[in-house]
Structures are given as structure tokens and as C-alpha cells.
Write a structure and sequence with these properties.
Elements lengths: L5 H11 L20 E4 L2 E4 L4 E5 L14 E5 H7 L16
Antiparallel strand pairs: 1-2, 3-4
Length: 97
């Protein structure tokens, strides 16, 4: 089940980010009011603090858009993880699973 249905993925992403989620990669809280884009001297770019849904098993490694394979993450943390199975940073919260 890859990324064939963007609407379904956005709906699942919304449910993953409901409540007060913490980034499963760094452990810091995700600000659900953070803007998706930043406009500054570097131009328009994606906000590293924006909340996304990270694929625990990346699509490139055979993962799916199943809710069981998605965890809340900051865009910046998710981008650093890229398509690796293991995050390149340490979790900082004992409340993570």
C-alpha cells in the first residue's frame, strides 16, 4: 500500500498528530500551530518544527502508510532520518514507545 492515496495519508497524519504529540525521534513536543513554511532571508522553506508523520519502516524499504507504521515527528527530525530504519539522534523523553 504505498503512497497511492494522498487523501488517506493526510487523514491518518491528522490522527497521528492529534492531542499533544511528542516527536518520536527527538522527544520534544510538536507545536501543532507551527506554520508549515518559514519566510526569511533564505527565502521560503519548510519549517523544521512543523509536525509530520514519520514512516518507521520507510516506503523505500517496503513500509506502508498504515497507522501502525507512522509516528509523529518534526519535519526537521524526519528529514535527518531520511529513509533509514534507525534515527540518527537519541530520544530525549522517557514517555516515548
Amino acid at each position: 500500500m504505498g503512497r497511492n492515496n494522498g487523501t488517506r495519508f493526510r487523514r491518518i497524519r491528522s490522527s497521528i498528530l492529534s492531542g499533544t504529540p511528542a516527536c518520536h525521534l527527538c522527544g520534544k513536543p510538536i507545536d501543532l500551530n507551527a506554520p508549515r513554511y518559514l519566510d526569511d532571508e533564505k527565502g521560503r522553506r519548510l519549517n523544521p518544527e512543523y509536525g509530520t508523520a514519520d514512516h518507521v519502516i520507510p516506503i523505500a524499504k517496503g513500509g506502508t502508510d498504515s497507522p501502525h507504521n507512522l509516528r509523529p515527528a518534526h519535519f526537521g527530525c524526519n528529514a535527518r532520518k531520511n529513509n533509514r530504519m534507525n534515527a540518527p539522534m537519541l530520544k530525549r523523553s522517557s514517555t516515548l514507545n
